[in-house]
Amino acid sequence: MSLTAGSRPDGTRPPAAVEEPTAADGTAAAQGRVPNRKAGTAGRIPWRVRWRRDRALVLMTLPVIVLLLLFNYVPLLGNVVAFQDYDPYVSSNGVTAIFHSPWVGVEQFSRMLDDPLFWDAVKNTIVLFVLQLVLFFPVPVALALVINSVIRPRVRAVAQAIMYLPHFFSWVLVVTVFQQIFGGAGIIAQTLEDHGWSGFDLMTDASLFKYLVTAQAVWKDAGWGIIVFLAALAAVSTDLYEAAAMDGAGRRRRMWHVTLPALRPVIALLLVLRVGDALSVGFEQFLLQRDAVGVGASEVLDTYVWNMGIQNGDFSYAAAVGLVKGAIGLCLVLAANKFAHLLGEQGVYQK
């Protein structure tokens, strides 16, 4: 007995396969299949079960949420005074005084645009931000790479602790340390005078003030950035370095093709946050050195708001400046995050 093509040993043919209609997109709807609506919710845990499982964690974060609401979100309601001629003495309570203060519309914003002192503060803020972005931001990355290249763990731990220690210092202590080193009566000036050289006072030089505050920020906060970048480097698999070494890559090539790509998501995230905080270059640091170098060199937007609102009692005008500063900061965060997405990075949030 001969078998025909496609037949079984018993001479019968198998049932023909039924071809389902397909479409170019290959989706279930295009192929005529109705998706199961309960399939997406079959593995979902009910919220009661999740509450019993995670209620301890929720209760632990509850105080933080309350503090965040009280000190970060509830005060936002006070921005309404930017559209008023707010007078806290209209009522015995500052909150009820908001309801008795006259509305002036955008008068405070028009006054802000016509104030030359405001534009001087904006100029100083932008110059300091660009300078700190260029000189300060790469320093933690470079130091993290140097520490990560050290083989001995004990040496790495000691160097990391020494560099991270100034992060816990207050700005009062930081300015005091720089005063004792670079001031007119500091160690360097006194040493030069003892050897017949003329001393100097860097702390009162207005032309070098922007470089001085940048050096202070590097010394104080570079250690925190090192911790972040070292944590990112710890997640890099050693197999990548071994594979690159087997391919003939030297230390510089491994750093360029393995280490820096691993740091790129963290660098993009911190850069987005830094750009969003561009108009907040510092307050206490500049306020402490305001009298030494003068208002022209040390006035930034934060000190300008403090001077107009707290010292002069012009709360509505200070609120208007702060509101514009916050709105510009939000736009910078969104723009920087969009740029991070164009580079293929996640940024602050995903698309």
Q: Would you count the extended β strands for me?
A: 0
Helix content: 55-70%
> What is the alpha-carbon Rg in Å?
31 Å
Q: Topology as H/E string?
A: HHHHHHHHHHHHHHHH
Mean pLDDT across residues: 82
Shape: globular
Low-confidence stretches: 1-5, 17-34
Strand residue percentage: under 5%
* Class based on secondary structure composition and strand pairing: mainly alpha
The DSSP helix count reads 16
Report the end-to-end length measured between terminal Cα atoms: 66 Å
Main sheet summary: none
Write up this protein:
The protein is mainly α. The protein is 62% helix and 0% strand. It has 16 helices and no strands. α9 packs across α11 and α11 (251-276) runs antiparallel to α16 (315-342). The protein is globular. Residues 1-5 and 17-34 have low confidence and may be disordered.
